[in-house]
Design brief:
291 residues, single chain, mainly alpha, three-stranded mixed sheet, 12 helices
Length: 291
């Protein structure tokens, strides 16, 4: 990568993270207060990621409260951007080239970790995946129709898998554990299909990849990783709510209270829907979800 471009990008990343701090604090406060319903709470980290993606925003009163206005390194970054854009050179002895190299190495490491994780999962699917049985296909088609999808995504049965998960955003497919029918009844399985079809309808995997890309660029910012963690948790709550609304039994939406925990980052390994999600279904065996 061109040295000037690396310096320009690193200066943008450091300063953008600092300027996004006030928004991050507001988002954290709204999380703590639970000021929004679960179905809309996932917008909070999305707003933070949107700010991290913006190259520059107009000067406002918020800028004087951001760390960028108080940290000398941030002001130096602005100077570096101006120098690079004007075709000049950074003065000798400046620490900015070192910070730029560290930023580039961090981006490469995080991006490599994400891509290798995806490649390992893709290899496992290609190696062990097999078509699903006809009854599971019927449940999936029913759930896709209930969620308003024009077609059902392909199903792949994976031995040793713990729960359902959507994989891929260009050509999404639904990964299913081989012992699903042995551990859950028909009502529970249909509820799980509804939950995963909600992910497909919302294009959650695409938004996850975009968020992971921003986390790779802002790898040094712990608030970016916290936002990704909350984004994953809140989208699960939103999909729980969508699945419950799509159930045939209207009473289920009043008896179930989805309550999702935060997942590890990135969420390449699937996790089950929230434990209380299964309270909406008869004969629920929550003990089997502890793995």
């Amino acid at each position: 990568m061109n040295a000037d471009l690396l310096l320009l990008l690193s200066a943008w990343a450091w300063r953008t993270s600092l300027e996004a701090l006030p928004l991050a604090l507001v988002v954290i406060l709204l999380w703590r207060l639970r000021a929004l319903p679960a179905a809309w709470r996932w917008w909070l980290p999305a707003l933070f990621f949107l700010r991290l993606a913006m190259p520059q925003v107009p000067e406002t009163g918020w800028h004087r409260w951001s760390l960028a206005a108080w940290v000398p390194a941030a002001e130096s970054s602005l100077g570096a951007v101006a120098v690079v854009e004007s075709g000049g050179s950074i003065e000798k002895g400046s620490a900015l080239p070192i910070l730029a190299v560290l930023w580039g190495l961090g981006c490469a490491a995080v991006a490599g970790w994400i891509l290798v994780s995806h490649w390992r999962l893709r290899r496992s699917i290609d190696r062990w995946g097999r078509p699903a049985e006809a009854d599971l296909e019927q449940h999936a088609v029913w759930a896709a129709a209930r969620m308003g999808l024009s077609r059902c995504v392909p199903l792949r049965v994976i031995p040793g898998w713990s729960t359902m998960a959507v994989h891929g955003w260009l050509r999404p497919e639904l990964l299913i554990p081989a012992d699903l029918a042995d551990r859950f009844n028909v009502s529970q399985i249909r509820g799980m299909f509804l939950h995963e079809m909600a992910h497909v309808r919302r294009r959650d995997m695409l938004w996850t990849w975009l968020a992971l890309g921003l986390c790779a660029l802002h790898w040094f910012n712990p608030l970016a990783w916290l936002a990704l963690r909350r984004f994953h948790a809140d989208r699960e709550l939103a999909c729980d709510a969508a699945a419950l609304r799509a159930l045939d039994d209207p009473h289920a939406t009043t008896t179930a209270k989805p309550c999702c925990g935060a997942w590890s980052v990135p969420r390449f390994a699937p996790r089950p829907p929230s434990r209380h999600f299964f309270d909406a279904f008869p004969n629920s065996n929550n003990a089997s979800r502890t793995s």
